[in-house]
Specification:
heterodimer; A: about 120 residues; mainly beta; seven-stranded mixed sheet; four-stranded antiparallel sheet; about 0% helix; B: about 110 residues; six-stranded mixed sheet; 12 strands
């Protein structure tokens, strides 16, 4: 299995530009998570989906952030417009949720975003 | 709300030293508990887990026991290696959301010197 695949690996953009991060979860997994990691705040859960439906987006910092999961094999996280404080590593993770809990999270390698 | 607190780092040890990284949690219900490890430039990967009280998770020489009475899940290893240098995250699955949501601690960076 190829694991969770994220792209791009690195993204450098200028303030005000739109940024789109992509994620392909592990085949057969029914839950997908977007996390943001910074030195100051650690690992923050932004949003998660179950069976392609957003379940909890309370961690999305502002309306500038949006996420979609059009099908079971693809998700995007979009920032429009981007700001320097959005600079962070963004991780996508997937898992197989079962009644009463789920199996472990599988993380992608992350996207290092720098907004200048 | 539910939360995870772990000891601040960095922790610096010499090779073959004993490791303990403390983790305590606050949760309603009966969460599952996890330790994840992150090596430089990589995503997190599961190190071990425990799903109920008194369970002991173990992997690669690391161990942690689910202590409900003290709400703790401390990570231990008897003899660390340089290759164990990484960031370690304690986490719980939020029972309030049916177990779908994982809450992470702030992470503890470990440096092991040869």
């Amino acid at each position: 299995d190829a694991g969770v695949i994220q792209s791009p690996r690195h993204e450098v953009t200028e303030m005000g530009q739109e940024v789109t991060l992509r994620c392909k979860p592990i085949s057969g997994h029914n839950s997908l998570f977007w996390y943001r990691q910074t030195m100051m705040r650690g690992l923050e859960l932004l949003i998660y989906f179950n069976n392609n439906v957003p379940i909890d987006d309370s961690g999305m910092p502002e309306d500038r952030f949006s996420a979609k999961m059009p099908n079971a094999s693809f998700s995007t996280l979009k920032i429009q417009p981007s700001e320097p404080r959005d600079s962070a590593v963004y991780f996508c993770a997937s898992s197989l949720a079962r009644t009463g809990g789920y199996e472990k999270l599988f993380f992608g390698s992350g996207t290092q975003l720098s907004v200048l | 709300g539910n939360s995870v607190t772990q000891m601040e780092g960095p922790v610096t040890l010499s090779e073959e030293a004993f490791l303990t990284i403390n983790c305590t949690y606050t949760a309603t219900g009966y969460p599952s508990l996890f330790w994840y490890v992150q090596y430089p430039g990589e995503g997190l990967q599961l190190l071990l887990k425990a799903t109920k009280a008194d369970d002991k998770g173990s992997n690669k020489g690391f161990e942690a026991t689910y202590r409900k009475e003290t709400t703790s899940f401390h990570l231990e290893k008897g003899s660390v290696q340089v290759s164990d240098s990484a960031v370690y995250f304690c986490a719980l699955s939020d029972p309030g959301t049916g177990g779908f949501k994982t809450i992470f601690g702030a992470g503890t960076r470990l440096f092991v010197k040869a």
